[in-house]
Write a structure and sequence with these properties.
Number of strands: 5
Radius of gyration: 16 Å
Mean pLDDT: 96
Structural class: alpha/beta
Distance between the termini: 14 Å
Number of helices: 8
Helix content: 40-55%
Order of helices and strands: EHEHHEHEHHHEH
Length: 173
């Protein structure tokens, strides 16, 4: 099984995924961003883009990597990864379904002011124009498809541990 934690930057995906992993027996965290980083390391580089998700190989490589890891380890993969383009989510989720891999899709949500404050106040990564530019695309995805397609966990007033507990309980039930 895959527990996919979606949502935009600042929602708490990375922190929450580590906590969810601790609450789900036989689970591992797989950050699909590492697949994108691998593609970014190709030299000479792939065609220019502002987001590795736009490269056509990224999506099937995420599916194939997750499938291979699950075939090898079994259990559950907890995957923290923002996917705001519906067609990309459909490609990934249908690819996983073709391999018989069930997916629990969660969106970690917070209101725009909270997200902005978290990004601007991030003491680890620092303020990030890259992360801030995804606030509106996230709001649009939430309005048009994302919240209807996933289980929404509003993290505006939750700690990461509380959000992780809610997700783990939902998965176990």
């Amino acid at each position: 099984m895959i527990v996919w934690l979606n949502g935009t930057h600042g929602a708490g995906k990375t922190t929450t995924s580590a906590l969810v992993q601790q609450l789900l027996p036989d689970s591992r965290v797989f950050d699909a961003e590492k697949v994108g980083e691998t593609l970014m390391d190709i030299t000479p580089g792939l065609p220019g883009t502002d987001n590795f998700q736009h490269w056509p190989p990224w999506r099937p490589l995420v599916v194939e990597t997750a499938r291979r890891v699950l075939d090898y380890t079994g259990g559950t993969l907890v995957m923290p990864m923002t996917v705001l383009v519906e067609a990309y989510w459909r490609e990934i989720s249908s690819g996983l379904a073709q391999h018989g891999i069930p997916v629990r899709h969660f969106v970690l949500h917070a209101d725009q002011d909270t997200l902005r404050a978290r990004i601007e106040g991030d003491t680890v990564l620092g303020p990030s124009a890259f992360r801030l530019k995804y606030l509106e695309p996230y709001a649009e995805a939430a309005r048009t498809w994302l919240h209807a397609d996933a289980e929404v966990v509003d993290t505006t007033h939750l700690t990461p541990a509380q959000a992780a507990s809610r997700i783990a309980e939902a998965v176990k039930s």
